[in-house]
TrEMBL record:
Belongs to the heme-copper respiratory oxidase family. GO terms for biological process: electron transport coupled proton transport; oxidative phosphorylation; respiratory electron transport chain. It comes from the Bacteria. Binds 2 heme groups per subunit, denoted as high- and low-spin. This is cytochrome-c oxidase. Pfam families: COX1.
Length: 500
């Protein structure tokens, strides 16, 4: 940790840390990075398709088809867990293994056998989990619905991941540990801790178990886990991506190294305390609610500091926004990160939460972060990384532009529809007539939601179509003609990439 303060990073080394070979002439281990990258893309298609289908089920319930396995209640956790652990988890592992090798200038520790074991264990977790949820086996815990037996396998994968990553850092050839690696390491360690304590269960069959906690304590433990999965997987982990790929793609050093240090430590300390804001207006003690709200508000400071740090990295390179669609993905992701991390503390305020609690406003908030921040930063990172992994040129920058606009339009339609439906829900459920009775029945609120749900479905269709376009573009990139090392590392959109 002292490296943060003793050694200023060598930005020249970072900007040039993209060679396929280390200074010694040995090559990096890209095979495992390729495997996790492909797996992430495959699970993205599966998870997003499931999400689009359940969005359709809410708009048109007949799509349930009276088949239990594809009803909303079973497919919804398949969607959330597949995009978190399948798409997001594989993307984080792929990019972290890519970044740690280049910034530490060393091969991954552990060897092919251990790395392949980790890869197949991770894919088995997502596959077995999806099957179990569709079959009706669930812990019924948000973002942790997988049965205990599947979670034990995930814990094994997380331990292998932590050991591989820590030992790779330990044998680095660079004295400095670049800041992206600290974010990745925090994500790995925090996820393992959260996963362990949230799965303290007593099994009573192969697929079913009881939590060792009960009542309010069980709910508090679940949301300590649930919000910190958002905090350390969907935020801190992907900030590791941001701190590497934004400087690399823009060709500029990170705007403020000191700010990145403050960003890291503040997030690492503050996030652990905010899960209670999911349980306002419940049996949770008021002092816990007040503590979680206070820390939620404080989170706005480091979150916006990190967003500003990423966006201001483009100082002196703003013209690239017009010509480089990968930069567009990365910067727009940071804008959504800023928006989501402003909205989160606002929703934690008890006066606002009284309106938003149990409404679609929360769904809109989650997806502005999941689609706008997590997905866009991942897409931008993949567009940067895939040509370098396979030694080719990016097939088409024009298709990247098209993907960007499909994704952005889809996100805006989705989020605005959920804002409208959520705020409308909250207002209708809180309205009273002149006699003090509820002005609207629950059924009337459901009727109101129909149009926003259709718009949400359309937005999801836009977003998924953009992802399919990315898959085509990256496939054509992988199978295209190989280029020289120099060409690959100085790729200029529109020049070295074709303009299909």
């Amino acid at each position: 940790m002292g490296y943060f303060y003793k050694t200023k990073p060598n930005w020249g080394y970072l900007m040039n840390a993209s060679s396929a070979t280390m200074p010694s002439g040995a090559s990096y281990d890209y095979d495992i990075v390729k495997m996790f990258t492909i797996a992430s893309i495959v699970w993205a298609l599966v998870g997003m398709a499931a999400g689009l289908y359940i969005a359709g089920e809410l708009a048109w319930p007949a799509l349930n088809l009276d088949i239990a396995e594809i009803t909303f209640g079973r497919l919804r956790p398949v969607h959330t867990n597949t995009v978190i652990w399948g798409f997001g988890g594989n993307a984080l592992i792929a990019t972290s293994f890519y970044v740690v090798q280049r910034t530490c200038q060393t091969r991954l520790w552990g060897g092919k056998y251990l790395l392949n074991t980790m890869f197949w264990a991770w894919q088995a977790v997502v596959l077995i989990g999806a099957w179990a949820l569709m079959a009706g086996h669930s812990q019924s815990r948000e973002y942790a619905e997988y049965p205990l037996v599947d979670n034990i396998l995930m814990m094994i994968g997380l331990v292998i991941y932590a050991v591989v990553y820590a030992n790779t850092l330990r044998r680095r050839s660079q004295p400095h540990i670049y800041v992206a690696n600290w974010f990745y390491m925090a994500f790995i360690l925090a996820t393992a801790i959260l996963h362990f304590f949230n799965n303290l269960q007593v099994p009573y069959s192969l697929w079913q178990s009881y939590s060792v906690f009960s009542g309010t304590q069980d709910a508090m433990t679940e949301w300590w886990y649930g919000h910190n999965i958002v905090g350390f997987v969907l935020t801190v982990g992907f900030l590791g991506m941001m701190y590497y790929f934004v400087p690399k793609q823009s060709g500029r050093p990170i705007f403020s190294y000191r700010l990145s240090i403050v960003h890291f430590w503040a997030l690492s300390f503050l996030y652990m305390w905010v899960g209670g804001h999911h349980l306002e207006w419940t049996a949770l003690p008021n002092w816990i609610n007040s503590l979680s709200v206070a820390f939620s508000i404080l989170l706005l400071l480091p979150s916006w500091g990190g967003m500003i740090n990423g966006i201001m990295t483009l100082s002196g390179a703003w013209e690239k926004l017009r010509t480089d669609p990968i930069i567009l993905f990365l910067v727009t992701a940071l804008a959504f990160y800023g928006m989501a991390t402003f909205e989160g503390p606002m929703l934690a305020l008890q006066s606002v939460n009284a309106l938003s609690h149990y409404t679609d406003w929360t769904i809109g908030h989650v997806h502005s972060g999941a689609l706008g921040w997590v997905a866009l930063i991942t897409f931008g990172s993949f567009y940067h990384m895939v040509p370098r992994l396979w030694g080719t040129r990016l097939y088409s920058t024009r298709l990247v532009f098209v993907h960007f606009w499909l994704a952005t339009i889809g996100i805006v339609l989705y989020v605005v529809a959920m804002w409208v439906s959520g705020i409308g829900q909250g207002l209708m459920l809180r309205a009273f007539d002149q006699y003090g009775n509820l002005a609207y029945t629950f059924v009337e609120t459901v009727v109101f939601l129909h149009i926003p749900y259709i718009v949400r479905f359309i937005g999801g269709a836009f977003f998924l179509s953009g992802t399919i376009l990315m898959v085509y573009n990256l496939y054509k990139t992988v199978v295209s003609e190989r280029v020289t090392e120099v060409e690959r590392e100085v790729m200029i959109p529109g020049k070295l990439a074709s303009s299909h």
